[in-house]
Amino acid sequence: MKRLICLALTALMLLAVVPASAVDYLYIATGGTSGTYYALGGELANLFAKNIPDVEVNAPSTGASAENIRLINSGDAELAIVQNDVADYAYNGINAFEGEQIQSFSVVASLYPEFVQLVVSPSAGINSLADLKGKRISVGAAGSGVYFNAIDFLTVAGLTLDDIQAQYLSFAETADAIKNRQLDAGFVVAGIPNAAIQELTSTTDTLLYSLSDEEVAALTELRGFYAESTIPADTYPNQTADAAAVAIRAILICKADLSEDLIYNVTKTLYEKTGDISHAKGAEIVLDQALLGVSTPVHPGAERYYTEVGLMG
Questions:
Q1: φ, ψ dihedrals at 59, nearest 5°
Q2: How far apart are CA 95 and CA 300, in angstroms?
Q3: Which residues, 6 or more positions from 184, have their beta carbon under 8 angstroms from its beta carbon?
Q4: How far is CA 105 from CA 22, 51, 154, 251, 296, in A?
Q5: Residue 245 forms beta bridges with which residues?
């Protein structure tokens, strides 16, 4: 009897010192509750929690790209959806991150495009980016992502803000001002089709500007985060031909110090279970574009998966 009691006590002691399976608690920083980042982030949280053992995932609403990078840096989030241009600014300490260089994140995957779209009034005579000189142009809110994209477009044309009549308007305000002939052109950075451009092109003869081959090459050379893209014909009313464009990308990033195995499983799940994502953007998350527009370091766990599938050497 004593022997049985001793054996039972020994077993209990062994159980006490064997740790339970460690659980990784992951927070995915997303965006505002009415935006794509929040909706897609919630689906990614469910996808990872369902398919990766010993992880619990939440996807709270946040202030989107710039805030998300800061949340990664402070340790308040492990994963985040951000724009790749904002990630580039943070990594290099420029533009919105001047004096605040952040390199504590790594890229997991490039998810889907957000196009830099330039809408122009036909009467303005804008047939090249150089023709923006002297024109009334909406460049987005000062310091915003749209603003810095507009600066890049001016730069490749040899122009600065001093060469145009800049106005700092939202997408809806830009559309209204063009409709009311108060603007010659305006920048909109968004997925396609964009509601403001749809409404504008359906009620006016406004055109979607198509970049020349030289302009595309200059933009992609200027900034590594721009991806050569095409806005297909009929995306907008009266758009009869494809429009050449560049796009930034929504990307998934993570804390750089997360384990290789964890991020390998995150990446593998993202691409092998994409069909489980019901959000419309899920159809745009494709493996052959996983590194498109990525200008900052990729996490070793993601690299391991991409090497396995032949995307990286």
A1: -135, 80
A2: 28
A3: 120, 121, 124, 126, 135, 136, 137, 178
A4: 23, 23, 30, 12, 9
A5: 229
Residue closest to 108 by CA, chosen among 229, 285, 313: 285
DSSP state of 159: -
**pLDDT 10s digits, 234-266:** 999 989 999 999 999 999 999 999 999 999 999
Q: What is the CA radius of gyration of the chain?
A: 24
Contact 238, 205 (CB under 8 A): yes
User: Structure pTM?
Assistant: 0.82
List of residues 6+ apart from 79 with CB closer than 8 A: 26, 27, 28, 29, 44, 108, 252, 253, 254, 255, 266
Beta pairing class for 24-29 and 55-58: parallel
CB 226 within 8 A of CB 248: yes
Q: Which residue matches tokens 């730069």? A: 155
